Amino acid sequence: MAIVLETLDAEGTLLLRTPLVSGVTLVQAQPGLTYRVVNDFGGRVAPSALVRRLDDDLRIEDLPGERNLALQGFFSRCTPEATCTLALENIGGTAAETVTPATPPVTALADGGLLMYSAGAPAASVAAAAESGFALKPVAGVAGGLAIVAGAGGGGGGGGSADVTPRQRRRSPATRSRGWLCRPSPVPPSRARR
């Protein structure tokens, strides 16, 4: 699948289509333009991508085919008055979601960059951020990943009796009777509860 960066003017007219190559494609950001990443048919590229600020550049990473994009000078050439815009619709966002120089970052990253957007955060993270007054864009790798790991790793505790129901017990010759599980008991299989 070909991945293309489309450059649009303020009226939405397509000015340029730049194919993204394997590795990093460098594009000089220009004020007044909107950038969007699309597949060769003009549609969704990926269900999610990582959008981050590193110095004055806006980087879009984790695109299919080991492709990355750097919009150089996105935060220095473009200002809130003469803005640049990255549309997020085809990289995990909705049609209304964008990144501009005025967009607040989601969080600081260990490499000194700022996370601007990453699709897939759970609704609880979004609600908690909204209550705090911070404009959060979904953060899959940070909050979503931790929530999934925490939820998947749990389960077992709680105490209770040692009695195990037949559905929880593994099949073994000692507990198998006519293809269904039962508790070892003196009750004949024909009278046991199913």
Describe the 3D structure.
The protein is built from 2 helices and 13 strands. The chain has helices spanning 123-132, 140-153, and strands spanning 3-8, 14-19, 23-28, 34-39, 50-54, 57-63, 67-72, 85-87, 98-99, 107-108, 114-118, 176-177, 180-181. Strand 6 (57-63) and strand 7 form a beta hairpin. 12% of the residues lie in helices and 30% in strands. The strands form 3 sheets. The chain has a 6-stranded mixed beta sheet with strand order 3-7-6-5-11-10, with no helix packed on it. It has a 5-stranded mixed beta sheet with strand order 2-1-4-8-9, with no helix packed on it. The longest helix is centred in the last third of the chain and has 14 residues, at 140-153. The chain has 194 residues and is of the alpha+beta class. The model is unreliable at 121-185 (pLDDT under 50).
Overall 3D geometry?
A: globular
- Lateral strand order in the biggest sheet: 3-7-6-5-11-10
Q: Which parts are unreliable, with pLDDT below 50 for 5 consecutive residues or more? A: 121-185
Q: Average pLDDT across residues?
A: 73
* Residues in β-strands, percent: 25-35%
- Overall structural class, as computed from helix and strand content, comes to alpha+beta
- Please outline the major beta sheet: 6 strands, mixed
Helix content: 10-25%
What's the gyration radius in Å?
A: 26 Å
> What are the secondary-structure elements, in order, as H or E?
EEEEEEEEEEEHHEE
Give the strand tally: 13
Tell me the number of helical segments per DSSP (H or I, 4 or more residues long).
2
Query: Gap between N and C termini, in Å?
Result: 53 Å
